[in-house]
Predict the 3D structure of the following.
Amino acid sequence: MRKRLPKILVTGGAGFIGSAFVKEWRWFYFPKGSYSCRRGGLNLPYGLVIIDKLTYAGDLKRLEEVKGKFKFYRTDICDKTGIQSIFQKEKPDIVVHFAAESHVDRSINDASPFIETNIRGTQVLLDACRKYNIKKFIFISTDEVYGEIPNGKFSESSSIKSNSPYAASKAAADLLVQAYVRTYNFPAIIIRPCNNYGPWQFPEKLIPLAIKSVLKGGKVPVYARGQNVREWLYVNDCAKGIMQIMRKGKIGALYNLGSGIESKNIDTVKLILRNLGVSQNRYKFVKDRPGHDIRYSLNSSKIKKELGWKPKVDFKEGIKLTIDWYLENKTWLMEGF
Ligand SMILES: NC(=O)c1ccc[n+]([C@@H]2O[C@H](COP(=O)([O-])OP(=O)(O)OC[C@H]3O[C@@H](n4cnc5c(N)ncnc54)[C@H](O)[C@@H]3O)[C@@H](O)[C@H]2O)c1
C-alpha cells in the first residue's frame, strides 16, 4: 500500500521564496517523466495548505501555475485564534515557515511590523504547532542573523550578532525556535539561506530594482561605493535545498544554505547592465544604508555533506534567466510599487 503523504502547511506561500517552494513541492513525490508528473505533478489540494496575509509583498499571481493544488487561507500569523482554528481543521504534519517582513530598508524606517510578524507571529505558530503535535517545523531564518564578516565564512556554530532591525527580528525568532527545541523537545529545523534572486522577487530588492530602474529609463541606485558583498543563490536552488532539509534534515539541527557565489553590489549591477545591453554607467551612488553590513558569507558544507544538496544555477546563468523573466513579465515588474 502506498504511504500516506505528509500534509504540509506553508506560511508566506504567496511570497517570493515560499511560492518557489510550493511550485517545487508539486514535483516532489514524482520523478520527472512519470505519469503523475506528466499530468502536472501532485494534485492533492488537501495535501498542501498555504497561509498568507497578502501584505504588499504577497501575490497569488506567483501561484497561478499551481492553482487548485493547494488550500489557501488569507490569515495573519499573529492572529492566534485564526491560526489555531486552521491547525485544528487542517491537522498538518509539517509546517514550513517563510512568512516574514523581509526588507532591511523598511525595517530601518519602522521596525514595528518586523517585531510583530517575525517574532510574535513565529511564537503564535510555535505554540499552535505544540498544541496540535506537529511532527516537523521548518523555520526559514537568514544568513543576516550572523551579522557581517569581512573575511572568512560563518558556520552553523558561529554566534548570532545581527545588525539591522530586520536581522535582529529574524535572530529573535531563530533563538525562540532553538529555545523551544531545548525546552520542549520541539521538532524543529532551522535553515539560514543567503541572498536569493530569481523570477517573481518584489522590485525593492537589489536585482529586480536594478532591472526596473533601467527599464524605466533611469539609473540604478547603488549604496555608498557598491563595495558590499552578498552571496547569491538562485531561488529554485534554494527551494530544492529547503525541500531536501524538510525530507532528510536532522530534527533540532541548523543548516546554512549558501551558493558560495559572492559578488560586490557594484559588480552585480554591472552584470545586469551588460545583460540588458545598456551603458555600464547607468548607475548612481546614493547615501549608504545606516549600519550596512559589508559582507555575508556562509560555509554550507554541512548540507552538502549530509544531504548531498548543491546549487545548479551559476550566477551568470541565473542573472540571464532572471532578466529574461522580468522582460517577459514587465507589467508585473512595473506595477510592483
Ligand atoms: N529573499 C531573500 O533573499 C532571503 C534570504 C534569506 C532568508 N529569507 C527569509 O525567507 C523568507 C521568505 O522571504 P521572501 O523573500 O520570500 O519574502 P517576501 O517578502 O517575498 O514574502 C513574505 C511573505 O510573507 C507574507 N507575510 C508577511 N507578513 C505576514 C503575516 N503577518 N502573516 C502571514 N503572512 C505574512 C507576505 O504576504 C509574503 O507573501 C523570510 O522569512 C525571509 O526572512 C529571505
User: Anything to note?
Assistant: The first helix runs from residue 16 to 25. The chain is about 40% helix and 15% strand. The chain has a mean pLDDT of 94.
